[in-house]
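Progress note, sequence design subtask.
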């Protein structure tokens, strides 16, 4: 089933998608948001308190922030479909977007804000014990490991936040990082180092997750300096080592870099295809903050508005000439 041609479609939600929808909605374009079937709202729906989003001096829960953004987008005329995009066709002036339900949507402009997904360790036992000890979301699963040994793997802000959060549940929390220095912000590192319930294991990589019929029981480590192999008891194994952009559905429709991030023009959100724009963590491999994603969503909406305005002016000129 093919829908009528719309002005704008936003693929993805989260801070970038909802902000783009707010701006396009206020401009009168009534965008369609294809928000995803399982994870509408992006990664913030799995976050506890967000302390660094401007306007909330006391902080705000991640799901509440996303719910507010969604409601604001709908207030200004955005329509939301909770479905997944499986393929696109950007080869024609009218772009086509196909969803998992079999529906084809068409629009003059498309904004891609599909974000990124958790990166896996790729070691023996990780897949086997996924959901039975191995987790990628502390706020989702931390409660299940109350008074049990926990390890967190990673060295960025996400790993720090997860270790700090999990320290209220686990009998112990060990933060494992492959280098001798963290890439996380200083305030997050200071918070973890000051937490008496968290111990650090640096210059170490996980080589396997071990367990039994009840779930994960330990991890195996290798020291990157000495090569020594050891084991740490762990019922909860929380992986926070980065992300992979959710762009596989795009195929060759727009230019991507070697890691799958969408390439955009310098100082703009336009992609290699006129009328197609991108924002948020599907583009940004550096900052990965809710506020930077929201800002890029604003930019993408303004770029899309400019494109649609020029398109309408051209159509009016052609109509007057005929």
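Output:
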């Amino acid at each position: 089933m093919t829908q009528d041609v719309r002005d704008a479609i936003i693929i993805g939600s989260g801070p970038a998608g909802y902000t783009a929808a707010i701006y396009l909605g206020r401009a009168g374009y009534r965008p369609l948001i294809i928000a995803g079937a399982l994870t509408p709202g992006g990664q913030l729906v799995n976050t506890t308190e967000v302390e660094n989003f401007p306007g909330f001096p006391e902080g705000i829960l991640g799901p509440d922030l996303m719910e507010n953004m969604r409601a604001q987008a709908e207030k200004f005329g955005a329509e939301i479909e909770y479905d997944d995009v499986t393929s696109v066709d950007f080869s024609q002036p009218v772009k086509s977007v196909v969803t998992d339900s079999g529906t084809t949507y068409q629009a003059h402009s498309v904004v891609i804000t599909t974000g990124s997904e958790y990166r896996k360790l790729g070691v023996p036992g990780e897949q086997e014990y996924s959901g039975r000890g191995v987790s990628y979301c502390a706020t989702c699963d931390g409660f299940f490991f109350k008074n049990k040994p926990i390890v967190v793997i990673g060295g960025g802000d996400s790993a720090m936040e997860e270790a700090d959060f999990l320290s209220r549940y686990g009998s112990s929390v060990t933060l494992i990082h492959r280098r001798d220095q963290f890439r996380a912000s200083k305030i997050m590192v200071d918070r973890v180092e000051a937490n008496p319930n968290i111990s650090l294991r640096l210059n170490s990589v996980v080589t396997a997750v071990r367990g039994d019929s009840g779930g994960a029981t330990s991890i195996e480590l290798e020291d990157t300096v000495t090569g020594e192999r050891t084991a740490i008891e762990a019922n909860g194994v929380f992986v926070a080592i980065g992300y992979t952009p959710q762009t596989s559905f795009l195929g060759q429709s727009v230019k991507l870099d070697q890691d799958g991030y969408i390439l955009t023009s310098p100082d703009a959100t336009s992609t290699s295809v006129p009328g197609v724009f991108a924002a948020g963590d599907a583009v940004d491999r550096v900052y990965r903050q809710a506020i930077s994603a929201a800002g890029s969503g604003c930019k993408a909406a303004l770029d899309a508005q400019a494109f649609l305005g020029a398109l309408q002016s051209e159509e009016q000129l052609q109509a007057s000439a005929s």
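The mean pLDDT is 93. Work on this subtask will continue into the next period as scheduled.
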